[in-house]
Design a protein that fits this description.
alpha/beta; ten-stranded mixed beta sheet; 25 strands; binds pyridoxal-5'-phosphate; EC 2.4.1.1
């Protein structure tokens, strides 16, 4: 029976602990207590989980499957307890048993099944979809190791260590062996015609791998709706291929789910990555078909009952895979299969940077997935014929938009051609898709393209992680915003009240003290919670320009050192970022930040005014402490490069002021809060485009003494005595002409920082700006985003039961 109150909870929890471990409650380890609690919560949710499946089936509801190579879930315990409405019963019950809830919750290891924003978006969508009663299921890989954990060594280098996140077990998952499916690689295709002249394709000599699903409940807030995140695990089939050594087979099987590829921005290695992609896509499609056929005896209505959303191009093989199943396994004609596939598939683009657009050599796909290759090749030919008929004099179109180009398969092109809907993730980004990257397709099919500005779940990112702010808001605007986050805008009626402004400053101070304690625990650095907490937390990438930020810190350091009268309002600059292990430049920037931090923090001339912190191992649970304890949100990417950003929204929702360029969703933040309530600097997309041809980084070195002095420290040994260590950074800016316009935006950034300092000192005006940011953050709830996908792309309705 499910517990209904504190007494019942205490009784069941103690009983389960004893039964599971055969010791008294006090003898059990905190990890054991966490595991038992997690399992209890999962079982508690299982009744709703079952009811959801029954309701979907009874209503013959359309189901959505969100295919994403990444789900950056973070910890689930608090979110699940709160969403189920049993947080108080459980935490009070534990307290009466003498158990500290926070200690127990900290035993949970982040599910770091992703790199960054793209994976976190998928996780926010799962939370919002269930909360909005939308039947949206996730499909991904059960990675043995999450994204690497980051340590910083004595020299300031990033060191990657394995993330064995499931070492103590994962109480949220349920292994569903009965839903296992077979996935085939390698081998060859036999073609034979039948008496009616139809061709049949047979994939023979394949390596078979068993895909076993592990399901995790995705629990909605204040509803029974409980969706499924299905994580696929590769296991050896009962037979190994005759042509392959048995040990080699086992090692291939074990590789597939071993880890997350630690790179979300460049085309990454080779067969294993391709294998991972096809593995979870093929298993996912198979399982969709099986589920569908249990309810309906035909696949004719697949497009009415199923939508598949492709989160970036990583799962785009789902397109030829569905075609294959429809034609080869269920006898559909090419044209019918293509029509059904297009009605099912839609695609979300996450980048316009050409080096990040996924392409696969024909040869790889041909060898690893011979039948899939045949289908892609045929799709390409038919696309060529279509172009010929519709635009007979436009050979150029064929060359610029064909799927297979120069021996490479362009996954984004395949996705756009074969989806009924294509979306970007912020207005400026969708605009760039339409005018640049997908311009030709947009001219052919303008109706396919829509914008879906990203969002974040307000529960994890504010209501649950910032209780001080939540309670403050409740006492001023009532509780309605907790269930309908758009109501947060009511706060606009109060932003001028000095009492509220002071109350907000106290809340922020409390969160800053919590962050300061976290900083001290993880780095030993003592920071002053009354200084300005200025944070840049995101993956390390040249386009995100952490370099611009640290160059400004270096400039301040030099200025304070050389000019006795120069004073700044005390600042704590906080960085958190992981670099892809093979990304040399990014790792150097991390090292630079750490070296600057060491010099600055130990220099008594400056450390009353200036502190620099690099927080190691950026992750979801760190963000939950970092974002709401910050005053300033650094969103300083080169305009046109950041598709949306979601970190910007987390800061905003917790009352930090954005210091940013007009890029990604920051453009929309700026429009909503107004230029008085953020600080915008730097070149716009248009300015950068027209400037690119004539830009000479050297001119900025010659013309600006501040830049010259800062750059000199990269080659004179200032930071660690080694003159060559940071030369790559120097060369990137000068020899390679500063691809991301760091020097061009430097002056404007310094001025923007001066504005921040000035505005911060008017405490009431600052608080008012923060409150306006919070009040306007309703638009960035992923509840809003997911409802737009449901209405405008999937055509699914909320399911009430
Ligand atoms: C939100 C989030 C991101 C995305 O941050 P951006 O600033 O949008 O790049 C990346 N990683 C983690 C852990 C996050 O929580």
């Amino acid at each position: 029976m499910m517990f209904r109150n504190k007494q019942e909870f205490k009784k069941e929890f103690s009983q389960r602990l004893i039964e599971a471990y055969g010791t008294t409650v006090d003898q059990t380890h905190p990890t054991e207590k966490y595991l038992v609690l997690g399992e209890m919560v999962r079982d508690y949710a299982s009744v709703n989980w079952k009811d959801t499946k029954v309701a979907v089936s009874e209503n013959q509801a359309k189901q959505v499957y969100y295919f994403s190579m990444e789900f950056l879930l973070g910890r689930m315990l608090t979110s699940n307890l709160r969403n189920l409405g049993i947080y108080d019963i459980v935490t009070e019950g534990l307290e009466e048993l003498g158990i500290d809830y926070e200690n127990l919750a900290s035993m949970e290891r982040d599910a770091g099944l992703g790199n960054g924003g793209l994976g976190r978006l998928a996780a926010c969508f799962m939370d919002s979809a269930a909360t909005e009663n939308l039947p949206v299921n996730g499909n991904c890989i059960r990675y043995q190791c999450g994204l690497f954990r980051q340590r910083i060594d004595d020299q300031g280098n990033q060191v990657e260590v394995p993330d064995m996140w499931m070492r103590i077990g994962n109480p949220w998952e349920v292994r569903k062996l009965k839903h296992s499916v077979d996935v085939k690689f390698w081998g060859n295709v036999e073609v034979h015609g039948d008496e009616n002249g139809n061709l049949h394709f047979n994939h023979v000599n394949a390596e078979h791998i068993l895909a076993v699903p592990y399901d995790m409940p995705m629990i909605g807030a204040g509803t029974k709706m409980t969706n499924t995140l299905r994580l696929w695990s590769a296991e050896a089939a009962d037979e190994s291929p005759s042509w392959m050594d048995y040990r080699e087979y086992l090692s291939e099987v074990n590789q597939i789910c071993l880890n997350v590829y630690p790179d979300d921005s460049t085309e990454e290695g080779k067969y294993l990555r391709l294998k991972q992609q096809y593995f979870f896509v093929s298993a996912g499609i198979d399982s969709i078909i099986n589920t569908h056929l249990k309810q309906y005896d035909t696949l004719d209505n697949l497009g009415e009952k199923v939508s598949v959303q492709l989160n970036d191009t990583h799962p785009v093989l789902a397109i030829p895979e569905l075609m294959r199943v429809l034609m080869d396994d269920y006898g559909y004609s090419w044209d019918r299969a293509q029509a059904i596939t297009m009605s099912v598939m839609s695609y979300t683009n996450h980048t316009v940077m050409s080096e990040a657009l996924e392409k696969w050599p024909v040869e790889y796909v041909q060898k690893l997935l011979p039948r899939i290759y045949m289908i892609i090749d045929e799709l390409n030919s038919r696309y060529g014929r279509f172009l010929n008929e519709r635009y007979p004099n436009r050979q150029d179109l064929w060359y610029s938009t064909r799927i297979i180009d120069n021996g490479m398969i362009h996954m984004a092109r395949l996705a756009v051609i074969m989806s009924h809907a294509v979306n970007g993730v912020a207005e400026i980004h969708t605009g760039l898709l339409e005018s640049e990257l997908f311009h030709e397709y947009y001219s052919m099919w303008p109706e396919k393209f829509t914008n879906k500005t990203n969002g974040i779940t307000p529960r994890r990112w504010m209501l649950y992680s910032n209780p001080e702010l939540r309670e403050m808001l409740k006492s001023h605007i009532g509780k309605g915003f907790e269930t309908d986050f758009s109501k947060i805008e009511k706060l606009m009626n109060h932003v001028d009240e000095p009492k509220l402004q002071e109350e907000f400053l106290r809340v922020k101070q409390k969160r800053k003290e919590i962050l300061a304690a976290y900083i001290q625990r993880s780095t030993g650095i003592i920071v002053d919670p009354s200084s300005i907490f200025d944070s840049q937390a995101k993956r390390l990438h040249a386009y995100k320009r952490q370099l611009l930020n640290i160059m400004h810190v270096i400039y301040l350091y030099q200025r304070i050192k050389s000019d006795r009268n120069f004073r700044i309002y005390p600042h704590t600059f906080i960085f958190a970022a992981k670099a892809a292990p093979s990304y040399v430049f990014a790792k150097k920037v991390i090292k630079l930040i750490n070296c600057v931090s060491k010099v600055v923090n130990s220099d008594p001339d400056v450390n009353g005014m200036l502190k620099v912190v690099f927080l190691p191992n950026y992750s979801v649970s760190m963000s939950e402490v970092l974002m709401n304890g910050s005053d300033v949100s650094e969103q300083i990417s080169t305009a046109g490069k950041e598709a949306s950003g979601t970190g910007n929204m987390k800061f905003m929702m917790n009352g930090a002021i954005t210091l940013g360029t007009l890029d990604g969703a920051t453009v929309e933040i700026d429009r909503l809060v107004g230029r008085e309530n953020d600080v915008i600097f730097g070149m716009t997309v248009e300015e950068i485009e027209s400037f690119r041809q004539t830009y000479r980084a050297m001119d900025y070195v010659n013309g600006d003494e501040r830049i010259r002095k800062v750059l000199n420290t990269f080659i004179d040994g200032t930071w660690n005595g080694d003159r060559d260590d940071f030369r790559t950074i120097y060369d990137e800016l000068l020899m390679k002409n500063d691809e991301y316009f760091v020097l061009a935006d430097f002056d404007s950034y310094v001025q923007a920082q001066e504005q921040i300092s000035a505005r911060y000192q008017d405490r009431h005006a600052w608080a008012r700006s923060c409150l306006i940011n919070i009040a306007k953050s309703g638009y960035f709830s992923s509840d809003r985003t997911i409802c737009q996908y449901a209405d405008e792309i999937w055509n699914v309705k909320p399911l009430k039961f």
